[in-house]
Amino acid sequence: MSTLAGEGLTSIKAGNYAEGIEKLSQALKQQRAPLWLIERSKAYLRTEQFELALHDAEHALSIALSRANRDLMIEAQLRRAITLFRMQKYADADVCAYWTLQLIAGAKATEDDGQQKKVDGNGDYAVTMAEVQEGNNKVLEANKKNVNLQGLAGDRSKTTTNRNLAITWRMNSLSAMEKLEPGAPGRKVTVEKYPKPSETPPVKESAIQTVQVNEIDAEDESDQETGKPQIPQHILDGAAPSRASTVTWTEIWNQFQAEHRKHDVRVDWYETDTSVSVSLFVKNVPKDLAQVDSKESSVTVSPISSITSGAFTLHLKGKIRPEETTYTVKSMKIELSLKKQTAGKWRVLRDTNAEAKFYDQATFIKHAESRGLQPNQFGIDESKGDLDSWYEKLYKAMFDTAASNGTAATPASSSAAEPQKTVTAPVEKAKASAPAYPTSSKSGPKNWDTLKLDDDIDEDKQETPDDFFKMIYKGSDDDTRRAMMKSYVESNGTSLSTNWEEASKTSYKTEPPEGATAKKWDE
């Protein structure tokens, strides 16, 4: 990598977009590297130069295709989807996100899947969000009972991240498109699968203000491209407000989105039919001060220093039993264990209707007006650069439900040292009997029905693939745990089942990954 390119990538990561674009532009004159084009596309997008962002993404895609580099084709196609969404070309955005998923799934790059031809009689894109959700649910259902461990061990890979991003942008695009009138430009498909962009940029590059962005965490911010507006220079300088200016809800919304990104919390989760395990990635929460307040449809965690309000509320898709909520505080995260009121799958963790006001401009404005708020109450200029205070004032006015919600929160049980154990009435032990399946174990057959299940699992401080299995195990019922232990042990760690009815009747064999051979320890 050239020195100029390296400096450009570093500048963009630090939020110095003007400098990053300039250095990458110089480097690209020497070498047309798809990765540099993709990174410059991100910088253009974050400075709202959408045509340039799209041109770079399509140029990167064209070069990656000529080099048969699938990974870079995936990255470039995803950049197209995100940029087209920001340009309000929602049908085009969904088509590009679909093509991203096809590349991830291993489809032929030049295959004509006909996705852009799925239009109705009026020429409007006919794919719906319900269809996409149904397709995702089928994939989840297919993987629910038996999971290959090698696949799960790589679940945190870039491929999985891009797959999740592509699905997210499909949902975002189709949700926005469905709000448009029939015949609207955002419902029309105009994209080609592999365009041939010109070498000349579509518009002249303009001077770009340097905007410093607080680093949220070490991960790529691609999944947070929800609309980063450029902060006006007079706010950064703390200049006096212009008396002639009139504040609009659109201005408030744009600035709120920029600040909300900095105050949101990364969430991972897993569910069974009866419980939900949630990981909130917040650092250094004092164990003796941590509080988790549960309601039927939400959980609030505090104190969180990275959030101005000091608390984070998770609005849930389904209802839980607040009195049975437990939590564990760790140095890098807080783990929640929630019990469902009604058995069944939620499929998604967060209530999109309850949280739409955070991510949809029309819903945000409607919610503000329903509370009798006016945009002039939250003049950005009045903050004099203190955007944290501005955000806190707006957030409390918009979303503080303490006065309006009569449902009292239930404090959750803390388990800072170890997860809380469930105490059940003693049951008379059945006599041990030989299993109905053959076994080659040197220690003889093992009766898995009498397996002692222990919640006390030693966990590493750092995140590893094993953490995923531990979270599944901890949030599961006894039969699920027996199934996991039996399948894992008998297969020598190559298979994992969560279905005890099936696992109890199955003798698992070692199934090494493709290209590997299973051998005994002394061979």
Automatic annotation (TrEMBL):
Belongs to the SGT1 family. Residues 178-239, 406-463, 491-523 are annotated as: Disordered. Residues 406-417 have a biased composition (Low complexity). Pfam families: CS, SGS. Residues 436-523 form the SGS domain. Residues 262-350 form the CS domain. The lineage of its organism: Eukaryota, Fungi, Dikarya, Ascomycota, Pezizomycotina. It comes from Pestalotiopsis fici (strain W106-1 / CGMCC3.15140). PANTHER family: PROTEIN SGT1 HOMOLOG. One of its GO terms (molecular function) is protein-folding chaperone binding. This is CS domain-containing protein. Residues 491-509 have a biased composition (Polar residues).
